[in-house]
Design goal:
Layout (H helix, E strand, L loop, with lengths): L23 H8 L2 E5 L5 E5 L2 H9 L3 E2 L4 E2 L4 E2 L20 H10 L4 H25 L3 E2 H6 L1 H11 L6 H11 L6 H24 L5 H7 L6 H31 L2 H9 L4 H12 L6 E5 L3 E3 L2 E3 L4 E4 L1 H4 L34 H18 L4 E2 L22 E3 L1
Parallel strand pairs: 2-10
Antiparallel strand pairs: 1-2, 3-7, 4-5, 6-12, 7-10, 8-9, 11-12
Helix pairs in contact: 4-6, 4-14, 6-10, 7-8, 7-10, 8-10, 10-14, 12-14
């Protein structure tokens, strides 16, 4: 006779340390790596916390990525009547349709392409650091550094002008804030899709050297609404993710001065350090959502067709079965595979660009501001807990 399952739990969210996932994950990973989960809408799903199970769930072709994002308090987007996948938003599609879009877009984010645009990335980083230094100490590193760098990079790649940039940043931040109400969420979405629609129509008539123009006029031209959807996806994925890694990563370095000093003394450590920061911080704080398309088994538990899986990247990246002393930041850690960018056919398309941005940005920050320090006690740095989809810092007051 099988043992009854424990009562469903609520998605953990409370942190005792700004750099660590909720402590509950460690217990679940050891005792119940597949846990019954009560979703905000009342449905019952599963929480997956062990590295090998998370990786298996993400690679399993029997799981699909729904458009919703599950958080402890809600499921986005709202309302449910608007859950039809917009054209071009291939992150919520399955192969082969997903593969067709991904092949077209992936060429803009290859290692070769990232090397080609590295000089422009360095210029943007240098301009932002110069502006912050000219502003004077103290300053908010999020305002001057971590937020504008990836915003400028991805908007330039899409052909969005400097004058248009604040609108797109405002729309994206509203869409990824858990404090945004349904009406405001709808307004932000309409603004984003409306703005991109105007931009795509202009590029249809007068193409320029940007991703949107290329998708409209390339070897495999796409329809306007498909390009709008791809543009929205790239903005959402490329703006806030890297911004949060830069801000939270800088916070972690400034509270680990010995590690920062080692990195400053030897920039050859940067590649390894970036991977460790990605593993250690894992900004996708509530995990990735998947839906079982048919019955399947994970960690000895049967997941029924239609049930929701929340696969925790943060818990997987602290699994002691894979990492020695996983709760310690070690910028010299021998590299082991992490899941900060996900896994499988839906692994983050912009992973290489994010790595290059982080490497160049952190290298320049440590080099140009050797005396950089927090301007407030660490406990006064405001972190994005349950109010944002991606974990990070709202601001980072620094001095030098």
């Amino acid at each position: 006779m099988s043992m009854p399952l424990p009562d469903p739990m609520i998605l953990p969210s409370r942190r005792s340390c700004p750099f660590d996932p909720p402590e509950e994950y460690a217990r679940l990973r050891a005792e119940r790596p597949m846990s019954r989960l009560r979703l905000p809408g009342g449905r019952i799903g599963w929480l997956v916390t062990r590295y090998e199970d998370v990786r298996a769930a993400l690679a399993d072709p029997r799981t699909s990525p729904p458009l919703i994002q599950v958080t402890p308090a809600t499921e986005l987007p709202l309302p449910e009547t608007e859950l039809e996948v917009p054209p071009g938003v291939f992150s919520a599609l399955d192969p082969p349709e997903q593969s067709r879009y991904r092949r077209l877009v992936s060429r803009y984010f290859t290692r070769k392409r990232c090397r080609e645009i590295a000089p422009r990335l360095e210029q943007i980083i240098d301009e932002q650091l110069t502006a912050m230094i000219d502003h004077g100490s103290p300053a908010d590193l999020v305002q001057w550094f971590s937020q504008p760098i990836p915003t400028r990079v991805i908007t330039e790649m899409l052909g969005i002008t400097e004058q248009q940039r604040p609108d797109y940043q405002r729309w994206i931040l509203a869409m990824l804030s858990l404090d945004t109400g349904p009406e405001q969420l709808r307004e932000a979405r309409d603004g984003l899709y409306g703005g991109l629609g105007e931009l795509v129509r202009a590029r249809r008539v007068e193409p320029r050297g940007d991703i949107l123009s290329d998708l409209l006029h390339g070897d495999t031209p796409l329809k306007d609404d498909e390009v709008v959807g791809i543009g929205a996806l790239l903005l959402i994925a490329g703006l806030e993710t890297t911004a949060n890694m830069l801000g939270l990563g800088a916070f972690a370095l400034l509270t680990n001065p010995a590690q920062a000093a080692a990195l400053r003394a030897d920039e050859g450590l940067l590649d390894v350090a970036i991977e460790e920061l990605l593993r250690y911080l894992t900004i996708v704080q509530f995990g990735l959502t998947r839906t079982a398309r048919e019955d399947l088994e994970i960690a000895g538990r049967t997941v029924r067709a239609g049930e929701t899986l929340i696969v925790s990247l943060a818990a997987a990246n602290r699994d002691p079965e894979l990492y020695t002393d996983p709760d310690r930041l070690d910028l010299r850690r021998e590299q082991a595979p992490h899941l900060a960018f996900g896994h499988g056919v839906h692994q983050c398309l912009g992973a290489q660009l994010a790595r290059v941005e982080m490497k160049l940005a952190f290298g320049a920050l440590l080099r140009r501001l050797p005396d950089l320090r927090l301007a407030v006690p660490p406990e006064e740095v405001p972190t994005a807990g349950e109010d944002k989809v991606f974990y990070g810092v709202h601001s980072l007051p620094v001095a030098w």
